[in-house]
Amino acid sequence: MEDKGINPWVSTEYSQPEYVRMIENIHALNENLIVRVEDFSLFYGDKPALKRINLSIKKNRVTAIIGPSGCGKSTLLRAFNRMNDLIPNVRIEGRILIDGEDICKKDTDLVALRRKVGMVFQKPNPFPMSIYENVAFGLKIAGEKDRARLDQLVEKSLRQAALWDEAGDILDRSALTLSGGQQQRLCLARALVIEPEIILMDEPASALDPISTAKLEALIYSLKKDYTIVIVTHNMQQAARVADYTAFLLLGELVEYDETRKIFTNPTDKRTEDYITGRFG
Amino acid sequence: MKGWDKFFALASGLCVLIIFAFLFWIIFIIARNGAGTISWEFFTAAPVEGMTEGGIFPAIYGTVFLVLVMTVFLMPFGVMAGIYLAEYAPQNSRLTQAIRLAVNNLAGVPSIVFGLFGVGFFIQYAGRGLDRTLGLETVFSQPCLLWAAATLAILNLPVVIKTSEEAIKAVPLEHREAAFALGATKLKMIVRVVLPQAFSGILTGAILSVSRGAGEVAPILFTGAAYYLPYIPKLPTDQFMELGYHIFVLSTQSPDVDKTQPLLYGTILVLLLLTLALNTFAIGLRVRMRRKYGR
Amino acid sequence: MKRGERITNSILEGGLKLSALLAIFLIFLIFIFIFKEALPIFTNPGVRSEVDLRDLFASSVWQPVSDHPRFSLLPLFLGTLKLSLIAILFATPLALGAAIFTAEFAPRALKETIKPGIEILAGIPSVVMGAFALLTLASVLQGIFGWTMRLNAVNAGIALGLAIVPTIYSVADDALRAVPGSFREAAYALGSRRNQAIFRVIIPVALPGIFAGFMLGLGRAIGETMIVLLASGNAAILSLDPALSTRSFSATIAAELGEVVFGSTHYAVLFFIGALLFVITFIINLIANLVVERFKVRLAGVA
């Protein structure tokens, strides 16, 4: 797929629709779109959880997905790194393109995908190992053995996650001795160390106190220049604070997707307005 | 509480008391009669004078050798099957149900039947086959430590499978998700995240099976245990003396019952202490693990 | 994932599956190889001239080592029956009472001593239990009841019972604790006393589980060897009198296989007994396991 993307113009091996799509993809890249969701539906058994979603996510921006609980926002997020595969009886339709490549195909390399698309979960979930081992995990499973390089990358991502000052001296201590907020930043560092392009955050602050939440939000803002961030949140103020774009999901449907400012000040859809003004949810 | 309630509380409490009374009685009798025999010599010397004097070193040595070889056979298969059942087996599939049923039923097969199986399969079939293929004369086709250990391994397989499966399933889903999200393959996730966390649970199974392996006599009666050996076994193809079997021998086939009695009690005490220590350790581990996962 | 890694992974995962399948495989293997050694009873004319199925089940004397060996399984069957019956009668009330006490009456701290204590009892090797019955229990019982035979079915049965108490207890305890709290609350809300809640609601609901524990205990009692071998006296007497010395299937194999000539009639008969033991305990365990399985499914539906 990679070599196909480099120069489709000189090749004659492509069918018409493939051609069109490739051109679209190149346009997409030009427009700085990193994720394109096309007519994407997801079913748990026969029950649809996501219905024909279409949206594009811009590179180096923070995109928030909001909506009442059960609307499918976490499911959509987990579709980006195929974490829904862990649930039995899940069926999908449509496509999700990341860097122009459809990740919904059967033969998608999940390991490569998940190294490109990192994730931070709702509850901090550090492994019961040392802080160092937690951060180094992603490198070690990829076969990195060079101690010096490991040390260097661990430090770099701990700094990126604003945890180095607090944890730099206690790298050998168990990650479980950290506070909740620190644990969540550790999980962020753990995701950053393998240098993903996109970071998915599934209500990352829902288990944190307000101070830790503020720290995390500042962090998200600073990470924007290097990463594309997609964040699911049920907290609308949080979406308003951190996100450039916001998508509103309701009952598995994408109701509205626009710049955050527009969504919160002048929504087009009545349902969006009802939700952000707190009439339901 | 009054009336009948009180009666039932007392009656059921009495059942507990009776059980514990027997437990303490057994331990007390054996400790009282065996303690006098315990000495340095008892542990380090071989039996002499038609086993009416001396120690039990060969039996202790044989028991340790036996359970070590058993563990080598047992743990890889047991843990691997546990991993399969916990991580891979499709729930509610016919095959998975059949495997679970087989594991449960294997646990209920009488130990003497395992002994017969050891004779029929390991010695008469596998042993003969090996000897024939390797051009040897009765090396494998006779009772020996190797086959006794293999028989005990089969006997203990269900214990290890079940404890491993339980321990693996207790590892929280969040940790698996985190590993997957970092690009771990399922196997790497299992090896690096699940197994280290399940370690103490798997160890519990290993200790329980060692304890059981050290105490079971019926499966080794005909597969390798020796009444008396003038030498210490060096190879897995040697016969061996064993604590449990030694107790059986001393209590039924002694030429001089009164002279043997102290040795008998001493041996019983040693085996009892060994298994009690192992079991206490295993129970302690399990209690700690349950607390950790809040169950 | 690289191709090489993918191949290694599928090999390893195949290994995992094979290990699990080993359990099924072993069940068949055990049956086949024990039955194989017993087969001469049905096929070998030499063996058949010494014993046929009618002798095994119809005559009444077990005398395998003599000029005219006689292989009747009846005294052994009766002995096994007698021993397991005594063991079950001794163990079931004790184990059940203890399970009810831990599940319903015991304060938490006591509960946490009782369970490990019973696990310790489960950890006592059967040869130790057998030796205890042989050396101590037999004399005490003889002192009380004045039996002429010191080693007898009651002595071995009680020791056997002690060995199966943990089995019955743990399954019954699981069953009692699997009864949803809502049932208990419903019973109390209707004004039941504690014993009414226990006997009219909790025990009836947990009954399949309790039954399964009883069956597993029975299976163990039938197959247990060393206790019987050491404590029962081992005389193959065709009698129901529990005060007489008794011989079981399992102890017969343990006592005689060591001295038997490989391939002889006696050898085949001992393996036939083994096959019989395997089949009997297999059926008992199968029933117990199926009952437990259904019990779990049913409660999962309610809870």
The CATH architecture classification of chain A is 3-Layer(aba) Sandwich
Based on the structure, what is the oligomeric state of the protein chains? heterotrimer
Shape of chain C: globular
Q: Which overall shape of chain A is indicated by the principal axes computed on the Cα atoms?
A: globular
CATH class of chain A: Alpha Beta
- Low-confidence segments of chain C, given as residue ranges, are none
Strand residue percentage of chain C: under 5%
Topology:
The complex is a heterotrimer of chains A (281), B (295) and C (303).
Chain A: H1 2-6, H2 16-30, E1 33-44, E2 47-58, E3 62-66, H3 73-79, E4 90-98, E5 101-102, H4 110-116, E6 117-120, H5 131-141, H6 147-160, H7 164-167, H8 180-192, E7 198-202, H9 210-223, E8 228-232, H10 236-242, E9 245-250, E10 253-259, H11 260-265, H12 270-276
Chain B: H1 4-35, H2 40-44, E1 47-48, E2 53-54, H3 57-88, H4 94-108, H5 111-134, H6 145-169, H7 173-181, H8 186-215, H9 243-252, H10 257-292
Antiparallel strand pairs in B: 1-2
Chain C: H1 3-38, H2 40-43, H3 45-50, H4 53-58, E1 62-63, E2 70-71, H5 74-105, H6 108-123, H7 126-145, H8 153-178, H9 181-189, H10 194-223, H11 226-231, H12 249-256, H13 265-302
Antiparallel strand pairs in C: 1-2
Describe the fold and architecture.
The complex is a heterotrimer of chains A (281), B (295) and C (303). Chain A has 281 residues and is of the alpha/beta class. Chain A has a single domain (32-276), classed as 3-Layer(aba) Sandwich (Rossmann fold), CATH 3.40.50.300. In chain A, 39% of the residues lie in helices and 24% in strands. Chain A has twelve helices and ten strands. Chain A has helices at 2-6, 16-30, 73-79, 110-116, 131-141, 147-160, 164-167, 180-192, 210-223, 236-242, 260-265, 270-276; strands at 33-44, 47-58, 62-66, 90-98, 101-102, 117-120, 198-202, 228-232, 245-250, 253-259. In chain A, the strands form two sheets. Chain A has a six-stranded mixed β-sheet, with helices on both faces. Chain A has a four-stranded antiparallel β-sheet with strand order 2-1-4-5. Chain A is globular, with a radius of gyration of 20 Å. By secondary structure, chain B is an all-alpha fold. Helices cover 74% and strands 1% of the residues of chain B. Chain B has ten helices and two strands. Chain B has helices at 4-35, 40-44, 57-88, 94-108, 111-134, 145-169, 173-181, 186-215, 243-252, 257-292; strands at 47-48, 53-54. A two-stranded antiparallel ribbon of chain B has the order 1-2. In chain B, strand 1 (47-48) and strand 2 form a beta hairpin. The radius of gyration of chain B is 23 Å and the shape is globular. Chain B starts with a helix and ends with a helix. Chain C has two domains: 3-38; 54-302, Orthogonal Bundle (MetI-like fold), CATH 1.10.3720.10. Chain C has helices at 3-38, 40-43, 45-50, 53-58, 74-105, 108-123, 126-145, 153-178, 181-189, 194-223, 226-231, 249-256, 265-302, and strands spanning 62-63, 70-71. In chain C, helix 12 crosses helix 13. Chain C starts with a helix and ends with a helix. The model of chain C has no long low-confidence stretch (mean pLDDT 91). Chains B and C meet through helix 1, helix 3, helix 4, helix 5 and helix 6 of B and helix 1, helix 5, helix 6, helix 7 and helix 10 of C.
